[in-house]
Amino acid sequence: MKAYILKLTFEEIKPEIWRRVVLPAGATFNRLHETIQYVTNFQSELDSYHNFSFEIENLFITNDRNLLEEYKGRLFNGLTVKQPSRIKIDNYLEKHGEILYHYDFGDDWRIRVVLEETVEDYYFGYPTLLAGEGVAPPEDVGGPSGYKEFLKIYQDPTHSDYLSTYAWAESMYYLPLDNDEVNEQLKHVKYKKSEWMHIDHENYYVLSDKYRGSDYVDLEALPNKDLIIQYAVACTNLYGLIEYQEFLKIYNAQNKPSLSSKELRALITTPQYAKQLEQQFVFVHKRAFIHEAIEFVEDYGNFLDQVIGKPFYVPVKEELLRYTDELYYEKTSYLEKLEKMLAKDFFGGSTLMVKDEIDEIVGQLQLIEIDFNEVVSDLLGRYEFQDLKHANEYIQVLTNIANTTRIWENRGHTPEELSRIDKQHASPIQALPLRVIIGGKVGRNDPCPCGSGLKFKKCCGK
Description:
By secondary structure, the chain is of the alpha+beta class. It folds into three domains: 3-136 and 177-198, MM3350-like (Structural Genomics Hypothetical 15.5 Kd Protein In mrcA-pckA Intergenic Region, Chain A), CATH 3.10.290; 225-324; 333-458, no CATH class. The protein is built from 18 helices and 14 strands. The chain has helices at 29-39, 65-70, 90-96, 143-154, 162-171, 179-185, 225-239, 244-254, 261-268, 271-279, 292-296, 300-307, 317-321, 333-346, 355-365, 372-382, 388-403, 415-421; strands at residues 3-10, 18-24, 52-56, 59-62, 75-76, 79-82, 98-103, 109-119, 128-133, 200-202, 205-208, 241-243, 282-284, 288-291. The strands form three sheets. It has a nine-stranded mixed sheet with strand order 5-6-4-3-7-8-1-2-9. Strands 12-14-13 form a three-stranded antiparallel sheet. A two-stranded antiparallel ribbon has the order 10-11. Helix 14 (333-346) packs antiparallel against helix 17. The protein is elongated, with a radius of gyration of 29 Å. The model has no long low-confidence stretch (mean pLDDT 91).
């Protein structure tokens, strides 16, 4: 089958960002547009996020409905306006050797499409990404100049706007290039029948190919399978939810050989390993590992809205793997202090008897959207304190523990850590001193220590 090998290069960006693709002959300009969208971080693959155009010879080829309607039957800047779905690229590409693609007339992106080679041995009915370099810019970043300014902030964690910029970039799917993932998506740009008689396959499962490689992953030969599963469990316990690209980044930074998205997808979709994960409360979704608590209790979209843009806390390998135990939490000096206080005041000096109490408190603090004042009132209700000063000492320690406990909403960061990263949008929990205590407990008709203004019996004392 005849096909074209094209190099797509962003103009006015340094260092150079480029992609090399092969696509069957007979593509329309609309199919070329879709291919470019899939291999970049733009988002007009299937639905038009922004308009685009190609100018070649005497034609202005665009999906801009207003221009198509306004210049129907007349020239636009001396050019005939045509729809991209009605003209094939072949003659223009072979005659001129290159085409200029213009996307988002506001940001003014220009990508030069250069014909590198015409081949006769490509047998798939859709394009394939062969190679590429550079992270493609996100939508609405402001064109080449805006992208340059964006990178200055995005690559500087000390910048005051870093976290908000990071959040915006994540919401716009600003992702590093993943060839395997892109080639899965490019199967949607199908406009010819694949000639399977010429392809080494088994039940349409590609075994080997000059251009597309292989769909096959030999799981028997894949190293570190158990370690990969351990990482999936640990990361899910630490973050609640982690998308596969971020998971691969963490795993590959700490382990050799590196793991590809194709290998990960093959492993976790195998019934044996998917069941292993589910038995450890980890669910495999299309884009992410998700903890059972989010799968069945929390709304996925709502949780994602809470965490998007927050950086991941990534401990060293040894520490990270401790999170394979779903009950594991990092011991701090504040937890040790509370343990000693409880043992001395209420458990006759036995720290062994205090462990369950500490586990319960940390578990409460790690719950999604926890009300800290409820944790305080729960503690006040379980023990009889000597006086107001004694109770406030416990509240202060509990506040310190809350600020140094790793939680899902902060992607593993503690409230104290996140406030240091983003002082403008995050702040640690503040202790609210207890104002009234009678007989070792808050009186039911006294003001609630949470500061709501209600009586204790109508608030936290319900």
